[in-house]
Specification:
Order of helices and strands: EEHEEEHEEEHEEEHEH
Number of helices: 5
Number of strands: 12
Radius of gyration: 18 Å
Helix content: 10-25%
Shape: globular
Distance between the termini: 27 Å
Largest sheet: 6 strands, antiparallel, barrel
Oligomer: single chain
């Protein structure tokens, strides 16, 4: 479980293409400190498992499903990535509940620069648009953000200087893909309110 508060702007140092997956080597001295084999690290909002680490770098295997449903397949050596370690029980929840399970990819449509912030418009598929609401939470490339405006196929967010300086959202431009994870609570509410999808049998019996 993550919170969408990026700890480090890391870098892809190597990509090995396998038959039905890829192996990434990423540099992240902050997130690898104290990390062990089998730990989770979010890379641009995607929860990956550490399979090897050393000298401030870690290796993770990415299966075909993840490559197809996220923008990780477009990463190359030199690509910058947002990195975050899982939240520990008892830590502050600085952003919102983030699973590291990408729902869809969007595309940056435009950026409007102001004196102290930027407003970024991002497209999103209709399949997830219903979960995005004004002033709600959404994760973009692993960054917890508040939705400013929500449309049928887009939403906007405002980025403060800190977010622009410390995440990939400060260097991506129109046409660049981003990973999107909507608020998981909205998905559970929809599921519970959908006829025929009761969590338990009608008589209340358990398993």
């Amino acid at each position: 479980m993550f919170t969408g508060i990026v700890e480090e702007l890391g870098e892809v140092t190597a990509v090995e293409k396998l038959n039905d997956s890829s192996r990434f080597r990423l540099r992240g001295p902050v997130v690898t400190e104290g990390a062990e084999h089998g730990d989770s690290i979010a890379v641009n909002g995607v929860c990956l498992t550490v399979v090897d680490l050393g000298d401030g770098e870690f290796t993770a295997d990415v299966m075909a499903e993840t490559l197809e449903r996220s923008s990780l397949g477009a990463l190359r050596p030199g690509s910058r990535v947002n990195l975050e370690r899982p939240v520990a029980v008892g830590d502050r929840l600085g952003g919102h509940i983030v699973q590291g399970h990408v729902d869809a990819t969007g595309t940056i449509v435009e950026r409007k620069i102001s004196d102290n912030w930027e407003v970024v418009k991002i497209s999103l598929p209709a399949s997830v648009a219903r979960y995005v609401v004004e002033k709600g939470s959404i994760t973009v490339d692993g960054v917890s953000l508040t939705v400013v405006d929500a449309g049928p196929d887009f939403f906007t967010v405002s980025l403060i200087p800190t977010t622009l300086a410390l995440t990939t959202l400060g260097i991506k431009g129109p046409g660049d893909p981003v990973n999107l994870e909507v608020d998981v609570i909205a998905k559970y509410v929809e599921r519970l309110l959908t006829p025929g999808s009761e969590a338990f049998p009608a008589d209340g019996a358990g398993s």
